[in-house]
Amino acid sequence: MNNQTSPDTFINAEPLSRRGLLRVGGLTIGLATLAAACATEAKEVKPARVGDVPPPSQLPDAVVTDGVLFRTAASVHYSIIDAHNISKELGNLSPEQTAIVDAYIAANEAAIRDLAKSTTEAGSKPWTCANPRFDRVLLAPIRDHITGRPKTGSEETDVAPSDDPNRDALALAHAMESVAAEMHQSLVPQLSLPKYRTAVMQQAQAAARRAAALALAINPANIVNPLSLANANVSTPTTVEATTTTAAQDIAQTTDAPATTVATAAPFDFQQYYALPSQFGSLNAVQLGVGVPSGGAQFTINLETPSLNSFVYDYQTEC
Amino acid sequence: MDIKQAALPTAAAHTAGESAPMARRRVLAAGVSGAALSLLPWLSDRAGAQARTAPPTSGGETVIAPTPTTTPPPPKRPTAADIELLAVAQTIELAIRDLYDVALAAKSFEGETAEAITAIREAHEAYAQSISGLIGADAPGIRSDKLYNAQRSNFSGSAAAVAQAAADLENVAVATHLDILGSLIGVDATGLIASILVVEARHATVLNIIAGASTLSNQLASDGVALSPADYPVK
Predict the structure, then answer these.
(1) Does A91 map to a domain?
(2) How far B119 CA sits from the closest chain A CA (Å)?
(3) For a Cys staple, A63 with which of A2, A28, A158, B68, CB 3.0–4.6 Å?
(4) Element (DSSP H or E) covering residue A66
(5) The complex's ipTM?
């Protein structure tokens, strides 16, 4: 028995030639690429991980269409109705004031019906409830500053109840109608069809009339914003400001008689609302001051017209 | 070693010398072909690719979002047809301004009411100027004599009567602008007309109240009939 390997079969007996190396290499690469191409693509559906992690939710497409704009407008009108109901609930309104707010609620309901028709015409489903962001971000804090509430979170003090709920309730109603007018005006350049622009401006002019009438109901003298009068080169109405008297510290006083000067606090200048606030329809934020003044300031909130973060998109299917 | 055997390597080397380039080409060709074949599925997938939109899910059901129709955005600048409409609007605004001048000259109003009427008059002039700013040299810069002459007699008399006439005229202006808005194409023009008409509606309410409207429905009255550009052509 010979344990010696035959020289013919020894692996190193015939060294691999360059030609052979190229041939084998090329064949290997070709087969590998062919196998890789024909192989099914294996996707790891559930890669290994530690802990229970929910799959990331896919954000839906948020496309701003004419229908979305109409849905948003309707949602804001629902929110305005909510605000008017807050005015009725908290404002200690007189019968005349209640009649005005009731009429405004009815007008907003009519606007919602018109907007629902336009929404359907634009190919979307009408929205039937308030704007969630508007209610959460705007109406909730306004209500808090009328009713008052204990401090929460990082607040240092409680929110005091309003010193004049009637004033704040009427200011709220006026601000809401002003926002409605601005909102519809802001939609004009965003809508694609001229007939839709007319539809929203019908609502804008009606809301503007309501805001003007309420401004004069609050204060009949507030017809034109003094700034507009100044722009028009009209002499601004003379205003008499209360004189602020401060307690004098007369350290040189030698008599024991009490000082006759009485310290009176300067009256707080509450926000004024005008029937004609500007020459052109403004798209600025409507400023609303509510609540009891504190430290020479009153809680003031900016009411903006709806934008991308408060639109009611078509994928939102439930109120 | 015999001669034949000795000759073999030489022949083999000779044959290999001829076939070696061919073999290398074959290997390269095989490699390239393999690579091409491996890329084929990926390429075909790319060629037939579509925009992948993540379908939104609602309550466990997949909702296929409709493909939004994209229309070209409207132009910013007024079109030729827009300019004609804006020119009509300007002549109306200037006629209204001149009518307020008639009322102020007749001293129908006093005090704060006169200031408010002056402010409203100035606003209409500002509207005409802003239209000039938009359409430039195409702006007529003149009032509509037809409207002015038709309304002139209504703007002198008692404060209540003039205020009522002015409120009615403001409502006509609002209706006219709404009508124009339904035909305008350029975005700048639509924005301007919208910002004008929303304040003219406020003018109407203020004037209704100055005229003595006591009920809310009368204060908010908006029964104006739009003026047709065909009836009030720009000269």
Answers:
(1) yes
(2) 6
(3) B68
(4) helix A66-90
(5) 0.74
